[in-house]
Amino acid sequence: AYPSSGEPPCVVVGAGLAGSLMAIYMAQRGHSVEVFEARPDMRVRQVDGGRSINLALSTRGLTALAGVGLEEQVREMCIPMRGRMIHPVEGEPHLQPYGRADQFINSISRQGLNELLMTTAEAHEQVRFHFEKPCVDVDLDEGVAHFEDRISRERIAREASLVIGADGAYSAVRQRLQRSGRYNYEQAYLTHGYKELSIPAGPAGEFLMEKNALHIWPRHDFMLIALPNLDATFTVTLFMAFEGEGASFDALKTRAEVDAFFRREFPDAHALMPTLTDDFFENPTGSLVTIRCSPYHHGDRVMILGDAAHAVVPFYGQGMNAAFEDCTVFNALLDREGDDFGRAVAAFTEERKADADAIGHLALYNYYEMRSAVASPYFVFRKRIERVLHRFFPAWWIPLYSMVTFSTMPYAEARARAARQDRMLTVGLIAAVVLMGLMMLALLVALSR
Ligand code: FAD
């Protein structure tokens, strides 16, 4: 049944974004692969309640997709977003570009991308998918993964040459690692959650807001964002506290309260959301978790990647990109180690941990930046100076957002470099203010003589 070598297959747990991409990488290396997914096949049965959910795809994700020859196909599914379109409560929205004119991030359908990855993986004869078969246990030392058929309740055991846990933030494979000795694990929830809503297309099938932007309504303690879809709709997400004194999900109990809240806080969006109150009460309120753990492997035969290893809050638009980059990094380590899984998985933990921690921190900070800082004139002024510095000294000065989003520089390096740049900019601005003050003083003295 396994054409490559008679070895047991690689077993991938989770046919989400990272699991499906990793299955392609392993198949292209000549390994046989079995992928086990807890949910039904999304190409056949509706998932996520049929809502269209989109994600921002950027350089790291595109690089990983290019590694298996999918970049061109994926680009056709994308809508470029060139900057943040900031919507104040009153007045016209204005665009803050993300970078140079040729730099943009991409809005893509989660389901469309996941389906493409599964179908591409399945086109390799040595790849098999099994749906509705969640992983229930892993024998870490023997490399045997156990699954349960959701319909027949039958138990299935699969010996693997490598078990790859790509089963998301609530990973069963990681939970098994947590029960092994001296395992480091940390999870932290934000006090804020999110709810997905929508803006439909116009009567002639047109976009009702600027198509090529990520729209943000920053309101300090909460925010609304919207990303475009190919069918001219927008997927809108409200991020807000679950409960508390100010605005919160808890405080919005009736249709009238939701309607009044949107009318007051996001008047231009409210005017474009005819199904607002239905969406609000039909769609679940999601929580936002950061997960840090180590190591990402056990012995020679078990590893985790993607959200299973390092779930991050979504505010840098990097969770999927980092999960895809895990695949690129692991593939390069397999190249280096001649497909010795034991050495490659140990090297993966070694190489990836600091970078995963760094993007976890950056993503948390970016929530403050998106919901509050973007509305401050000082923030906009600093960003402008950074863009000018980058234009004149492109190798010496790179804004943090560009390092994270438009490069494959390791996240930890980007974070350290940005901290240095930040200090330099602050010192430079203080020096400029002091210098200007001294010049004014000298002028006043000269005039008074
Ligand atoms: P998942 O996509 O969660 O896939 C895990 C898969 O494993 C699923 O199919 C699940 O059904 C399956 N599974 C779970 N348990 C089991 C089990 N026991 N056995 C078998 N299968 C199992 N990232 C970006 O890069 N850009 C964005 O713009 C962005 N926006 C986001 C917005 C929101 C609101 C949220 C919540 C996240 C966002 N992310 C974004 C993050 C991104 O969604 C995740 O980082 C990404 O989905 C991780 O991929 P994954 O394959 O590791 O996990």
Characterise this structure.
- It is a single chain.
- The protein has 449 residues and is α/β, with parallel strands linked by helices.
- Among the domains are: 10-77 and 110-184 and 293-354, 3-Layer(bba) Sandwich (FAD/NAD(P)-binding domain); 376-448, no CATH class.
- 40% of the residues lie in helices and 22% in strands.
- The chain has helices at residues 17-28, 59-66, 71-75, 110-122, 172-178, 255-265, 267-270, 276-282, 307-310, 319-336, 341-371, 377-392, 400-405, 411-448, and strands at 10-13, 33-36, 54-57, 79-81, 83-86, 94-97, 105-109, 127-130, 135-139, 144-148, 155-159, 162-165, 184-199, 214-218, 223-228, 234-241, 285-294, 297-298, 302-304.
- The strands form 4 sheets. It has a 7-stranded mixed beta sheet with strand order 6-5-14-15-16-13-17.
- A hairpin with a 7-residue loop joins strand 5 (83-86) and strand 6 (94-97).
- Helix 2 (59-66) packs across helix 10 (319-336), helix 6 crosses helix 8 (276-282) and helix 11 (341-371) runs parallel beside helix 14.
- The longest helix has 38 residues, at 411-448.
- It binds flavin-adenine dinucleotide.
- Catalyzes the hydroxylation of L-kynurenine (L-Kyn) to form 3-hydroxy-L-kynurenine (L-3OHKyn). Required for synthesis of quinolinic acid.
- It holds the Pfam family FAD_binding_3.
- Its cofactor is FAD.
- Residues 10-328 form the FAD-binding domain.
- Keywords: FAD, Flavoprotein, Membrane, Monooxygenase, NADP, Oxidoreductase, Pyridine nucleotide biosynthesis, Transmembrane, Transmembrane helix.
